[in-house]
C-alpha cells in the first residue's frame, strides 16, 4: 500500500485511506490559517529537540505544510525527514522548509519490510497524524514508530481526546475520518507499544474556522523502551 486508497498490509489488515489525502489536497495552506496557534505542538517539539544529539535525524510523521514542526526542528539543527499522504501538503512543506526532505508516503509504507525504507531516527514527531487512522491500525503504527527509532529514541505524539473510531466529520469545507481515545486509554495504547511516557500536557484548542469545534488536545512526550 502506497497511500493511494485501499490496500492490504499490517498482517492482512485492510488499509483504507479513501478520501483522506484528497481532503488535505483540497485544504492546502488553509490548514495553517485555521490552526494558527499551536502552543502544545511547539512546546513538545522543543522538548524533543532538547533531548536529541547534535545533527539528530528526526521524522515528522504527517508533516502537513511543514509548519511549525519541521521548520522548528530544522532550525534546531536536526536532519529532518517529513512524510505525508497528501501531495499538496508535501509540496507546501518543501517550499516552507527547503532544508528538510519530504516524501509522499503512508505510515503503512514505513513498516518493517514495507516499500519505503527511510532508515532509523533519533526522534519522531507524530502530531495529529495517528488520529487519521482507525483504532485497529494505531497500535501497528506505534509499533512501526518504535522500530524506526534507534534505542533510547524519543517520540512526541498528540491526539484529540474523544471516544471515536474512524468517524466522519466536516473539516474546513471537506470531510475526513478521525479517531480519538479517552486519556487513560491513549496512555495505555502508547505504553503497550513500548514507550515510557515522560511528560504529558493538554490544551483546549479553538480553531479559527467556525466549522471545526473546540477540542481537547493531548500531548505525550515519550522515550522508546529497549
How would you characterize this protein structure?
With 226 residues, the chain is α/β, with parallel strands linked by helices. 28% of the residues lie in helices and 35% in strands. It has seven helices and eleven strands. The strands form three sheets. Strands 5-4-3-6-7-11-10 form a seven-stranded mixed beta sheet, sandwiched between helices. α6 (138-148) links the parallel β6 (121-127) and β7 (149-160). The two termini are 29 Å apart. 44% of the residues are buried.
Topology of this protein?
Elements: E1 6-9, E2 13-16, H1 20-27, H2 30-34, H3 39-50, E3 57-61, H4 69-75, E4 79-84, H5 87-96, E5 101-104, E6 121-127, H6 138-148, E7 149-160, E8 164-171, E9 174-180, H7 183-192, E10 195-205, E11 215-224
Parallel strand pairs: 3-4, 3-6, 4-5, 6-7
Antiparallel strand pairs: 1-2, 7-11, 8-9, 10-11
In brief, what are we looking at here?
The protein is of the alpha/beta class and 226 residues long.
